[in-house]
Amino acid sequence: MDGARHQAGIAAGRISAEEAAQNFADLHPPLDGHEAAVAADRCYFCHDAPCVAACPTGIDIPLFIRQIATGQPRAAAQTIFESNILGGMCARVCPTETLCEEACVRMTAEEKPVEIGRLQRYATDAQMATGRHPFTRAAQTGKRVAVVGAGPAGLACAHRLAMHGHDVVVMDARPKGGGLNEYGIAAYKTTGGFAQAELDWLLQIGGIELRTGTALGREVTLDALEADHDAVFLGIGLGAVNALACEGGDLPGVEDAVDFIARLRQAEDLPTLPVGRRVVVIGGGMTAVDAAVQSRLLGAEEVTIVYRRAKAAMSASLYEQDLAAARGVGLRYNARPVRVIGTGRAEAVEFEYTVDGPDGLTGTGETFRLAADQVLRAIGQALETGPLAGLELDGRKIAVDAEGRTSRAGVWAGGDCTAGGDDLTVTAVAQGRDAAESIHRALMEG
Amino acid sequence: MADIRGNFVGIKSPNPFWLASAPPTDKEYNVRRAFEAGWGGVVWKTLGAEGPPIVNVNGPRYGVVYGADRRVLGLNNIELITDRPLEVNLREIKAVKRDYPDRALVVSLMVPCEEQAWKDILARVEETGADGVELNFGCPHGMSERGMGSAVGQVPDYIEMVTRWCKANSRMPVIVKLTPNITDIRYPARAAAKGGADAVSLINTVSSITSVDLDNFSPEPTIDGKGSHGGYCGPAVKPIALNMVAEIARDPETAGLPISGIGGITTWRDAAEFMALGCGNVQVCTAAMTYGFKVVQEMISGLKLWMDDKGHPDLGAFRGRAVPNVTDWQYLNLNYVTKARIDPGKCIECGRCFAACEDTSHQAIAMRVEAGQRRFEVIDEECVACNLCVDVCPVEGCITMERLSAGSIDPRTGQVVSDDHADWTTHPNNPGRVAAE
User: Fold this and answer.
1) A33-41 vs A116-129: helix axis angle to the nearest 10?
2) CA distance B130 to B97
3) Where is the FAD/NAD(P)-binding domain (chain A) (predicted)?
């Protein structure tokens, strides 16, 4: 094993099984009962609490924390799931430092918020450990709804529709449901096969049929779905990846960070997963951080994130940037890729320094090179518009109104594929849920 | 540095902090540790009459009420008086007093209501060289079922009788420990004074059930599925104790009677408050049982520093200073008009003041959002100065009560604020008012 540790190029076996277990352990280990009691105790039970306003799904946070404090974590879980059926995943992956915990009044008081995310996990874990689903379906309505995409938006929508008594078919192009919960997101944020466990638990509501390996524009069309169902919800995410438009961008060794992450999430045995000795990640979002940190954890010797704008403009939170730095990832700002250099495969990337001026981002002409045998593109994903002919777009995403209605009657959309969101799991859940309520109202009016 | 030496009914101690008669003072081992830690005195755990030792339960003896962060706010016990042989206790008391002559060592006593029983035990205690005795007329559990403890303390005639016996049969100072499980503390205190008591100490524990086990439906602490009321103590009882101390201190019939303050004293500040209400010294138990004997070090240093800061050279300089300010409601100044003021610089925007005022009080706080920040402001037209917002605010000093100056108009009543004193006794709405002079 040790021989591979410093091997040049992209190679497997840079870490031992023990190191893999340690490196990819839970980033935020669950609170035990005592820790939860102490953490819950700090909540002031604010009036019209700022944390609730900061939560895209509007979970009644003071109430659920008080329920934990009074020894009823399953009652707390009920409060959470009523607003957010994927509260378990959100407890793990939400950037709470820019949402509820940033708004916590104890940030103002002591710069130390109540640990809302971990408390939410404590509560949702307690309910899910019972194996029981906390909701029952209303009487069947006989209405059928097609949900395309089994990611956070689609699942939240499907669950709420099923709860209202509608029959739902959820389709997903991938072999497993869960969307980015299953194929994206760093492994250390959602350990132990949680995404599939949560999916199974969610489906216990009944009335939801999951069809994997079914893609829009491949196995099904929007027209056909509309014809066969009373309503259609699109939660298809962003299937395409922005291209790296520079010389050498297609050399072997260059790939999309989302593919690298998906491969890692599906790997049975992490040490066998090949990773570069020197990795360069291009981009400034959560995907860039997840890819860079996990490269390091797989044993890459040098990992650098290069972002074209300034630190403050990076969409990965300060917490995520600090996490990357703490894991030994170098962060370079204000530099854009000029070309990937290599003979037959990537060997280095040349960058040009940039300045953000009144005319937008401009290059300074000064360049530098970073050695790289693996280059991960994390410069954003894009909507695959092909199968959506006829749907109005807002910029490069599907245009929707406040309830998630698209330009086409009978078709709703939510999550990353729609305009106006912030590409967060929790936002997708809120949009899926709200679209379900809108669909429900529309179906029951008729 | 302030002098905190105590002299309570002639019993001297290096500081006014004594350990109350309780489990911490049941044995030589504990008491020596207490003295090494710096306690000024102890009241040895209550001795009973000669004979077969007392029997305690073998299940839990304590129940608890927690505050935030599992802090002990209240402790309840069903332990009886000492369950060790009388001779052993007397021998140990003698040895400890011999080795710590500068510390106060008072012995708590509880024997049947017969003069001979008291006479016998007083003689034995005197032989130990102890500084005084404290008559336990307070324990609300167990012993009271046998006609002792609070069963005596609840009948003023018995208090007077037993106190008189003790004074007649001993040269030692006699402190009478009072039970709070009565309707008016002044009656037992007056009885003690009539019987010739040198001092009273209070409060003993409050009859209580701390909680109910919802699995087996029994009170806590639970002994084989059953529970019995126990004696409640700790920070939770301090307000009850302060009031009872003040009632005795300002009662003309007992004014000047030395008081040893007991009840939830946890910090130097608690002790100073009891002394300001007239106590010559204080006794502590729950704080020691919760944190260990070392807490006395904080009490000593804190009290000294506060006295230095305030210019009180010794305990007598501030003892009883708050007593004249304890009055009846009817004498409170109705012309003292205040309004709550919220400091936006200190506000953390939790909104608890708003919820409390809007839901449960006078709708006197306005909430608005300004530049993304929540702002809370008092509506003077509605504010009755109840103080609830101050009480529920988690930030110290964020909300304060400010007095309206004389000559200004109270927007709530439309009345001009006067700095003359005016109370209920002269108020026009009072049918029994006295004519203003």
Assistant:
1) 140
2) 7
3) 144-432
Q: Which two tokens stand for residue B144?
A: 């009271």
DSSP helix/strand/coil, B187? helix
| Best of A46, A70, A72 to mutate (most B CBs within 10 Å, chain B) | A46
pLDDT digits (tens, 9 = 90+) for A337-378: 999 999 999 999 999 999 988 888 999 999 999 999 999 999
The answer to whether residue B289 sits within a structural domain is: yes
3-state helix, strand, coil in chain B (%, to 5): 35, 20, 45
Provide the residue range defining the domain that includes B295: 6-325
B348 touches chain A (CB under 8 A): yes
Q: CA-CA-CA-CA torsion for B409, B413, B415, B416, nearest 10 degrees? A: -30
pTM score, whole prediction:
0.91
Q: Which domains does chain A have, with CATH numbers?
A: 33-128 (1.10.1060.10), 144-239+383-445 (3.50.50.60), 241-381 (3.50.50.60)
Q: Which of B325, B350, B365 is the last residue of a domain?
A: B325
Rounded Cα–Cα distance for residues A29 and A18 (Å): 18
Residue B429 lies in a domain: no
User: Is the domain of B192 the same as that of B104?
Assistant: yes
B1 falls within a domain:
no
Q: Is B233 a catalytic residue?
A: no
CB contact (8 A) between residue A108 and residue B348: yes
What is the secondary structure of A6-43 as a DSSP string? Answer: T-SSEES-SS-HHHHHHHTS-SSPPP-HHHHHHHHHT-
Q: Tokens 């109840």 appear where?
A: B386
Alpha helices in B266-329 (DSSP H): 268-276, 286-291, 295-310
> B352–A44: do the CB atoms touch at under 8 Å?
yes
Residues A228-274 have pLDDT tens digits of 999 999 999 998 888 888 899 999 999 999 999 999 999 999 999 99
Q: How far is CA B274 from CA A329, A405, B20, B251, in A?
A: 61, 69, 15, 16
